[in-house]
Amino acid sequence: ALPAAPGPHRARATAAFLSLAGTVVWHSDPQRFARLYEALWRLDRGEDALHPADPQAVRLNAMAQAVRRDMHKMKAFVRFRELQGAGARRRFAAWFEPDHHSLEPTAPFFARRFGDMDWSIATPALTVRCVDGALDYAQGGAPPDLPSGAGGDASEALWEVYFANIFNPARIKLNAMRAHMPKKYWRNLPETKLIPEMLADAEARVQRMHEAGASTPRRGAAAISTRYRAAQTPPEPPADLAAARLDAQSCTRCDLCGPATQTVWGEGPPDARLMVVGEQPGDEEDRAGRPFIGPAGTLLRASLAEAGLDPRDLWLTNAVKHFKFRRSGKRRLHQNPTRGEIEHCRWWLGLEVKLIKPRVIIALGASAAFALTGDKSPLGPRRGTVEQSADGTPVLITWHPAFALRSEAEAAARIRAEMVDDLRAAAARAA
Ligand code: URA
Asked: Which of 256, 318, 398 to mutate to test the pocket of ligand 1 (most atoms within 8 A of CB)?
C-alpha cells in the first residue's frame, strides 16, 4: 500500500529512475503515474525497485519499451502530404494513430529533420504544429481532410514508384512485415495499396530475378554510392538494442545488403558480460536470421561448453551483419568481407558494444580482430593475447572455428584446444 499523505519529504530519485520515468510517462496506461510513484517510493526506502528481476521493474521496462517502439513506428510511418497555399515555406500535414502518447516526445525529431518546412501532425489525442521551427500543441480529434495522394501529390506518386521498385520479392516475410509494419498503419500509408498487387506477382519476379542474375553496375557507381552513404549521417543512433536491431534490418551502408537475405543481428542477454564476435553470417545464418547456427557455429557452441560457458549467457554477433557470397551453381560460397565492408559495419558493432557494455570481447579470427581493434596484422602471433577495442574494452583474440573446420585432423585438434583455452581465459577475465 502507498503511504497516505506523505507530507513534505524530498524523495531521492536515481538517474536510472528518471530516465525510465521520462519514457514511461508517455504510456497510455492511466496507472502509469501510480506505478512510477510506487517505484520511487520503494527506491526512497532503499529497496532495489529497478532490479531487472523485480516484477515492478519488469512491468515499467516493458512499458518504456512499448513507448519506444511506438515512437519508432511514428518516425517510420508518418506520411506527410503537401498543402497548397501561398507563403515562402512549404507546408505539410499528416494524420497518425499512435498507441501511446508518443506525439510529444517524437515531435522534436520531426522538427530537426524537417527544419526547412512548416508541418503539422494530427493524432486523436493531440495535434502538433511546427511553424518556423517552433512547436505548438493543441487538442487532437478526427482525421483532418488531407489532400489525397492520387494524382495530386507528386512527391507521394514518386514515393510509390520508388517503393514498388525497391520491393524485393525474394525477401517477403509476411509475418516479419506485419510485425514491423502492423496492419493498423497500412490504411494511412500511401504505398501499402501497392502491396497486394506486388505480392501477386512476387513468385514470377523471383524467378525472373534468378534468371537474370546480378547486373554489373555502371562504372563509377561504387564511388557514387560510397559518397552518398558517407553523406548520410544517421539522424539519431538508436537508443536501445531493440531499436538498433530494427534499424539494422534496413541497413544499406555497403553493397552486401543487396544479395543477402537479411541482416543477421546479434543475440543474447542485453547485459551479457562476454561478447563473441565472428566474421559474418554464413549460408544457414543468412537464411534463418540468427548468428552461429551452421557448422562453424556448432563447433563454437561445443567449444564454449567445453570451456564451461553457456552460449545463452553470451552476446553472439558478427563483425559484418550480412552474408557475403558468390554463387556456384545452386550453392552460395562464403567470401571474405573487404576492409571497407568491415569498416562500414563497424558502426553497428560499436553500437552493440556501447549498449551491452561487455567486460570482455572475444574476437574470432582476423576480420573480427580488425573490426574491434583496427589492427589488420596477421592473427597467428596475436592469438591468445588481449588487445583493446576503440572504447577500451579488453578484446581476447582467438581462432575462428571455421579455421579448425578447414584444417587437417591434427591441426584442427590443436586449433580447437587453443580456442577452448582462450575461451576459458576470457571467461575468467570476465568473471
Ligand atoms: N561464422 C561466423 O563468423 N559467424 C556466424 O554467424 C557463422 C559463421
From this structure: 318
